[in-house]
Protein backbone atom coordinates (compact mmCIF):
# COMPACT_ATOMS: atom_id res chain seq x y z
CA UNK A 1 0.00 0.00 0.00
CA UNK A 2 3.06 2.27 -0.10
CA UNK A 3 2.29 5.75 -1.37
CA UNK A 4 -1.49 5.55 -0.96
CA UNK A 5 -3.26 8.36 0.89
CA UNK A 6 -5.64 7.64 3.74
CA UNK A 7 -8.99 5.98 3.14
CA UNK A 8 -11.85 6.34 5.62
CA UNK A 9 -13.90 3.19 6.14
CA UNK A 10 -17.27 3.56 7.87
CA UNK A 11 -18.18 0.17 9.36
CA UNK A 12 -21.96 0.18 9.73
CA UNK A 13 -23.95 -2.51 11.45
CA UNK A 14 -27.32 -3.23 9.87
CA UNK A 15 -30.37 -1.82 11.63
CA UNK A 16 -32.73 -3.82 13.86
CA UNK A 17 -34.93 -6.77 12.91
CA UNK A 18 -37.64 -8.57 14.88
CA UNK A 19 -35.46 -11.59 15.76
CA UNK A 20 -32.75 -9.48 17.35
CA UNK A 21 -31.73 -10.84 20.75
CA UNK A 22 -33.82 -14.00 20.49
CA UNK A 23 -32.62 -15.89 17.40
CA UNK A 24 -29.06 -16.48 16.18
CA UNK A 25 -29.83 -15.63 12.58
CA UNK A 26 -26.45 -16.06 10.94
CA UNK A 27 -26.96 -16.42 7.21
CA UNK A 28 -30.57 -17.62 7.35
CA UNK A 29 -32.62 -16.01 4.56
CA UNK A 30 -35.63 -13.78 5.00
CA UNK A 31 -34.42 -11.70 7.95
CA UNK A 32 -35.51 -8.16 7.08
CA UNK A 33 -35.62 -4.90 8.98
CA UNK A 34 -38.40 -4.27 11.46
CA UNK A 35 -40.36 -1.02 11.43
CA UNK A 36 -38.01 0.30 14.12
CA UNK A 37 -35.06 -0.89 12.03
CA UNK A 38 -36.25 1.05 8.99
CA UNK A 39 -36.39 4.19 11.13
CA UNK A 40 -32.87 3.46 12.39
CA UNK A 41 -31.60 3.01 8.84
CA UNK A 42 -33.11 6.33 7.80
CA UNK A 43 -31.58 8.04 10.84
CA UNK A 44 -28.21 6.52 9.96
CA UNK A 45 -28.49 7.79 6.40
CA UNK A 46 -29.33 11.27 7.69
CA UNK A 47 -26.36 11.22 10.10
CA UNK A 48 -24.01 10.26 7.26
CA UNK A 49 -25.28 12.98 4.93
CA UNK A 50 -22.34 15.23 5.86
CA UNK A 51 -19.94 12.62 4.45
CA UNK A 52 -19.32 12.54 0.72
CA UNK A 53 -19.27 8.79 0.14
CA UNK A 54 -17.47 7.26 -2.80
CA UNK A 55 -19.37 3.97 -2.48
CA UNK A 56 -21.71 1.96 -0.27
CA UNK A 57 -20.92 -1.75 0.00
CA UNK A 58 -23.02 -4.33 1.79
CA UNK A 59 -23.17 -7.86 3.05
CA UNK A 60 -25.56 -9.90 0.89
CA UNK A 61 -27.93 -10.49 3.84
CA UNK A 62 -31.31 -8.77 3.37
CA UNK A 63 -31.11 -6.77 6.61
CA UNK A 64 -27.74 -5.36 5.58
CA UNK A 65 -28.80 -4.57 2.01
CA UNK A 66 -31.93 -2.75 3.24
CA UNK A 67 -29.79 -0.64 5.58
CA UNK A 68 -27.29 0.02 2.80
CA UNK A 69 -30.05 1.12 0.42
CA UNK A 70 -31.15 3.84 2.86
CA UNK A 71 -27.58 5.14 3.09
CA UNK A 72 -26.88 4.86 -0.64
CA UNK A 73 -30.15 6.47 -1.73
CA UNK A 74 -29.43 9.55 0.37
CA UNK A 75 -26.11 9.90 -1.50
CA UNK A 76 -27.48 9.13 -4.98
CA UNK A 77 -25.42 5.93 -5.05
CA UNK A 78 -26.21 2.29 -5.71
CA UNK A 79 -25.36 -0.56 -3.35
CA UNK A 80 -22.52 -2.90 -4.20
CA UNK A 81 -22.83 -6.33 -2.57
CA UNK A 82 -19.53 -7.70 -1.28
CA UNK A 83 -19.27 -11.29 -0.03
CA UNK A 84 -16.37 -10.38 2.27
CA UNK A 85 -18.84 -8.36 4.37
CA UNK A 86 -21.16 -11.32 4.87
CA UNK A 87 -22.34 -12.46 8.29
CA UNK A 88 -20.39 -15.19 10.03
CA UNK A 89 -21.30 -18.62 8.72
CA UNK A 90 -22.72 -20.18 11.88
CA UNK A 91 -23.46 -23.53 10.28
CA UNK A 92 -25.93 -25.69 12.20
CA UNK A 93 -26.55 -22.91 14.72
CA UNK A 94 -28.12 -20.60 12.14
CA UNK A 95 -31.75 -19.92 13.02
CA UNK A 96 -31.55 -21.39 16.52
CA UNK A 97 -32.97 -19.55 19.51
CA UNK A 98 -30.40 -18.39 22.02
CA UNK A 99 -32.23 -20.17 24.82
CA UNK A 100 -31.80 -23.49 22.98
CA UNK A 101 -28.03 -22.95 22.79
CA UNK A 102 -27.52 -22.30 26.50
CA UNK A 103 -25.66 -25.13 28.16
CA UNK A 104 -24.23 -26.48 24.90
CA UNK A 105 -20.47 -26.96 25.55
CA UNK A 106 -19.63 -26.05 21.94
CA UNK A 107 -21.60 -22.82 22.26
CA UNK A 108 -19.87 -21.97 25.53
CA UNK A 109 -16.46 -22.63 23.96
CA UNK A 110 -17.36 -20.47 20.98
CA UNK A 111 -18.13 -17.52 23.24
CA UNK A 112 -15.05 -18.08 25.39
CA UNK A 113 -12.39 -18.86 22.76
CA UNK A 114 -13.24 -17.33 19.39
CA UNK A 115 -9.60 -17.59 18.29
CA UNK A 116 -9.92 -21.33 17.72
CA UNK A 117 -13.52 -22.46 18.23
CA UNK A 118 -15.75 -23.20 15.22
CA UNK A 119 -19.54 -23.43 14.96
CA UNK A 120 -20.65 -26.86 13.71
CA UNK A 121 -20.32 -26.69 9.94
CA UNK A 122 -19.47 -22.98 10.04
CA UNK A 123 -16.47 -20.66 9.93
CA UNK A 124 -14.14 -19.44 12.63
CA UNK A 125 -13.83 -15.85 13.78
CA UNK A 126 -10.29 -15.84 12.37
CA UNK A 127 -11.60 -16.81 8.94
CA UNK A 128 -14.08 -13.93 9.10
CA UNK A 129 -11.29 -11.64 10.27
CA UNK A 130 -9.11 -12.70 7.33
CA UNK A 131 -11.79 -11.84 4.78
CA UNK A 132 -12.40 -8.47 6.44
CA UNK A 133 -8.66 -7.71 6.38
CA UNK A 134 -8.64 -8.64 2.70
CA UNK A 135 -11.66 -6.42 2.06
CA UNK A 136 -10.14 -3.44 3.88
CA UNK A 137 -6.87 -3.74 1.97
CA UNK A 138 -8.69 -4.01 -1.35
CA UNK A 139 -10.92 -1.00 -0.64
CA UNK A 140 -8.00 1.10 0.57
CA UNK A 141 -6.36 0.61 -2.80
CA UNK A 142 -9.56 1.14 -4.75
CA UNK A 143 -10.84 4.21 -2.89
CA UNK A 144 -7.60 5.87 -1.77
CA UNK A 145 -8.24 9.33 -0.36
CA UNK A 146 -12.01 8.85 -0.20
CA UNK A 147 -14.67 7.64 2.25
CA UNK A 148 -16.64 4.42 1.83
CA UNK A 149 -19.47 2.88 3.85
CA UNK A 150 -19.45 -0.87 4.57
CA UNK A 151 -22.67 -2.38 5.92
CA UNK A 152 -22.05 -5.61 7.79
CA UNK A 153 -22.76 -7.45 11.04
CA UNK A 154 -21.74 -7.13 14.68
CA UNK A 155 -19.28 -10.01 14.93
CA UNK A 156 -17.72 -9.23 11.56
CA UNK A 157 -17.20 -5.60 12.56
CA UNK A 158 -15.74 -6.77 15.88
CA UNK A 159 -13.32 -8.99 13.95
CA UNK A 160 -12.23 -6.01 11.84
CA UNK A 161 -11.72 -3.81 14.90
CA UNK A 162 -9.72 -6.52 16.68
CA UNK A 163 -7.56 -6.85 13.57
CA UNK A 164 -6.94 -3.10 13.44
CA UNK A 165 -6.05 -2.97 17.14
CA UNK A 166 -3.88 -6.10 17.08
CA UNK A 167 -6.14 -7.86 19.58
CA UNK A 168 -7.03 -11.53 19.84
CA UNK A 169 -10.44 -12.52 18.50
CA UNK A 170 -11.10 -13.81 22.03
CA UNK A 171 -11.67 -10.17 23.04
CA UNK A 172 -14.78 -9.86 20.85
CA UNK A 173 -17.08 -9.40 23.84
CA UNK A 174 -15.22 -6.25 24.85
CA UNK A 175 -16.75 -4.40 21.90
CA UNK A 176 -20.35 -3.21 21.79
CA UNK A 177 -21.62 -2.88 18.22
CA UNK A 178 -25.27 -1.79 18.30
CA UNK A 179 -27.74 -1.94 15.40
CA UNK A 180 -27.29 0.98 12.98
CA UNK A 181 -24.07 2.01 14.73
CA UNK A 182 -20.97 3.40 13.04
CA UNK A 183 -17.36 2.47 13.74
CA UNK A 184 -14.64 4.23 11.77
CA UNK A 185 -11.31 2.90 10.53
CA UNK A 186 -8.66 4.94 8.76
CA UNK A 187 -6.38 3.01 6.43
CA UNK A 188 -3.00 4.41 5.44
CA UNK A 189 0.34 3.17 4.19
CA UNK A 190 1.31 2.85 7.86
CA UNK A 191 -1.57 0.45 8.60
CA UNK A 192 -4.95 0.89 10.29
CA UNK A 193 -6.16 3.34 12.90
CA UNK A 194 -9.41 3.05 14.86
CA UNK A 195 -11.04 6.48 14.88
CA UNK A 196 -14.28 5.59 16.70
CA UNK A 197 -16.37 2.62 17.81
CA UNK A 198 -20.16 2.13 18.09
CA UNK A 199 -21.30 5.67 17.38
CA UNK A 200 -25.07 6.10 17.46
CA UNK A 201 -26.68 7.67 14.38
CA UNK A 202 -27.91 10.71 16.33
From TrEMBL:
InterPro entries: His_Pase_superF_clade-1, His_PPase_superfam, PGM_Phosphatase. Coiled coil: none annotated. Pfam families: His_Phos_1. One of its GO terms (cellular component) is cytoplasm. GO terms for molecular function: phosphatase activity. SUPFAM superfamilies: Phosphoglycerate mutase-like. This is Histidine phosphatase family protein. It comes from Roseomonas genomospecies 6. The lineage of its organism: Bacteria, Pseudomonadati, Pseudomonadota, Alphaproteobacteria, Acetobacterales.
Amino acid sequence: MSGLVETILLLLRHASHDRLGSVLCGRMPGVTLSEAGRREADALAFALARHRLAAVLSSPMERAVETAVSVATSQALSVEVDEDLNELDLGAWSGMRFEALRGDPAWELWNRARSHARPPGGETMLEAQARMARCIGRLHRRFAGRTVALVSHADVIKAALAHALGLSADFHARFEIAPASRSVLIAGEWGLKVHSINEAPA
